[in-house]
């Protein structure tokens, strides 16, 4: 299996990406194509003890799409941007999948215009594995489609169910619509219209509305919402977890010697929890509804995050998620026409 | 100062409400009027060592609006519901303020139809004090207005700034629009339109867009958003904090003896943090834009939450928040007409 990795445009520079990719080759035995500034990447690969060989190849790209640029515009103008070059390789079938940790907007634009949507999919959505009390739940859309139409919620639910089943291994996953009350009459106009469609969709296991407090408590396996709401939830969750751990740390620092001893003794017990909520462990977000496996990582991904994302990407390919989505979406669209 | 307290329709029954109200009388020296089923309330007041006297009076109300009822409909049909009776007393000027912990929908309907909006206010909003790293920030709207118009964001920002200044004591508060990117071109149609109006509003200190991750980190003192998003954020925050503390507890239980000792030693250091994030400490949400002080508590409020909410209500009255809102909204509306 060959995976193309966009190495440019991330917060920590190509260093972490290259290290993560090289580690993935060692761990999973896959092949990677690193895209970006050739000299930099060659030096980094050497530094990490790999000569450019059949497992690790480098593809030169002289431009980068930065976080602040208009994604669609930049995609058209920067023909030699790393994400554009990587997308073209995916489209041409030279690789099996793509991993990016640059600008999310640029990645989505490159997926849409460079690779293309699966037939029958209106808008691709971003599926996020969110830590829950028992394991992980799928949150989508985490920022792909804002001002989503009710139909987009249904497609997100179908694609999210396949993601939960095949990648998170949550079989016959329960789908909940994120809303502000349990009753189907609750919510904004968008949520009420989405509820009406979800209720009648045969390709999902819809359990009705869920509320914000249910997200991390495994009430649903797939949490469906508008991309605006999902993106706020994703970032608020990161910020709140950080705030809580920061406040715990400050409380201990302010407290006496005994509390510090206590914290020291507790540390090993909390290592597993820290790992469970660490976004670097989660393995990236899947962009669902695109004709080939496309994975988006956080802009601040460390090497471990890239290695894990490549692990998820391998599952994405092996489980044939793209073809299953195509079948299920076709089935759903056919059902709606009848 | 006399405060009417709706004692019915809460998760734990009138017991916690009456206890909280009686404690507030002892703590703040205010007067309370308890509204609800007379016999029950009389017995509870006696049980807590108070005869019905000039400080604690009881007003009979034979009906209750339940959580699942349609708020506006129930307000019209249940003339003797406790929240309806309490609202009428507030409207008539028999009391200075109202505290409710029943159905939020019923409270908002009673405020709107029973008390009325401040002249020039389009929709009342719910202001929530959200724990942050340094103290508290104001989040609004926490569920009052869904499908908010851009003008509602501006009024929420003005009212929220007064709330932050007078109640949270955050002077010249920074107002941030909750969005999915920092640039003003980011977001859904609603957020983009709101941004354009907020930028030109003279009665607030607008700092631009903020993201979900900024909410608890004091980037803004007033976080403005649609009521749907605010309600999701409020409940997700509660659920996530609960999940984190539950996972910490489970990790310690699973771990060995040393970790348990560690947790025991750390407990006193974390007491302050626990208090800081406890919704019972926060003192309720203010319903802003109503002609008289109106405070809404969580349906699962314990006695302490009610006592604290009455404390906030006293500030609400003393700081003359209602009149300041009326002046500032008139000023803003006049500015828009010119």
Low-pLDDT ranges of chain A: none
Rg over CA atoms of chain A: 21 Å
Number of helices of chain A: 12
Q: Please give the number of β-strands of chain A.
A: 11
Biggest interface reads: A-B, 63 and 63 residues
Description of the structure:
2 copies of one chain form a homodimer. In chain A, a hairpin with a 4-residue loop joins strand 5 (125-131) and strand 6. Chain A is 50% helix and 16% strand. By secondary structure, chain A is α/β, with parallel strands linked by helices. In chain A, strands 3-2-1-4-11-10-5-6-9-7-8 form an 11-stranded mixed beta sheet, sandwiched between helices. The first copy, chain A, has helices at 14-28, 38-47, 71-77, 82-91, 104-115, 150-166, 189-199, 227-254, 257-277, 279-282, 303-318, 321-337; strands at residues 2-6, 31-36, 56-60, 97-100, 125-131, 136-140, 174-178, 205-210, 222-224, 285-288, 294-296. The radius of gyration of chain A is 21 Å and the shape is globular. The first copy, chain A, is built from 12 helices and 11 strands. In chain A, helix 4 (82-91) runs parallel beside helix 5 (104-115). At the A-B interface, helix 8 and helix 9 of A face helix 8 and helix 9 of B.
List keywords for this structure.
homodimer, 338 residues, alpha/beta, eleven-stranded mixed beta sheet, 12 helices, 11 strands, 50% helix, globular
């Amino acid at each position: 299996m060959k995976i193309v990795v966009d190495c440019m445009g991330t917060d920590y520079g190509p260093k972490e990406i290259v290290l993560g990719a090289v580690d993935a080759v060692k761990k999973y035995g896959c092949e990677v194509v690193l895209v970006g500034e050739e000299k930099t990447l060659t030096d980094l690969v050497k530094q990490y003890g790999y000569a450019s060989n059949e497992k690790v190849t480098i593809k030169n790209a002289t431009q980068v799409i930065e976080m602040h640029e208009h994604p669609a515009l930049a995609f058209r103008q920067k023909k030699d941007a790393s994400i554009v070059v990587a997308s073209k390789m995916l489209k041409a079938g030279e690789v099996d999948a793509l991993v990016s940790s640059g600008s999310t907007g640029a990645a989505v634009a490159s997926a849409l215009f460079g690779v293309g949507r699966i037939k029958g999919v209106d808008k691709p959505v971003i599926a996020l594995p969110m830590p829950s009390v028992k394991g992980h739940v799928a949150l989508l859309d985490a920022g792909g489609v804002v001002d989503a139409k009710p139909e987009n919620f249904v497609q997100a639910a179908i694609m999210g169910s396949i993601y939960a089943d095949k990648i998170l291994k949550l079989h016959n996953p329960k789908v909940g619509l994120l809303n502000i009350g349990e009753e189907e009459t609750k919510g904004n106009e968008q949520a009420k219209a989405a509820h009406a469609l979800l209720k009648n969709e045969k390709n999902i296991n819809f359990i009705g509305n869920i509320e914000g407090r249910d997200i991390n408590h495994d009430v649903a396996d797939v949490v469906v919402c508008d991309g605006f709401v999902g993106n706020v939830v994703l970032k608020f969750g990161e910020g709140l977890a950080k705030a809580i751990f920061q406040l715990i740390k400050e409380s201990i620092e302010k407290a006496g010697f005994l509390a510090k001893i206590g914290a020291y003794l507790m540390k090993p017990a909390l290592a597993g929890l820290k790992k469970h909520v660490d976004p670097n462990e989660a393995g990236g977000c899947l962009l669902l509804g695109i004709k080939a496996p496309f994975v988006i990582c956080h802009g601040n991904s460390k090497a471990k995050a890239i290695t894990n994302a490549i692990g998820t990407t391998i599952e994405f390919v092996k489980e044939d998620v793209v073809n299953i989505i195509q079948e299920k979406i076709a089935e759903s669209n056919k059902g709606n026409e009848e």
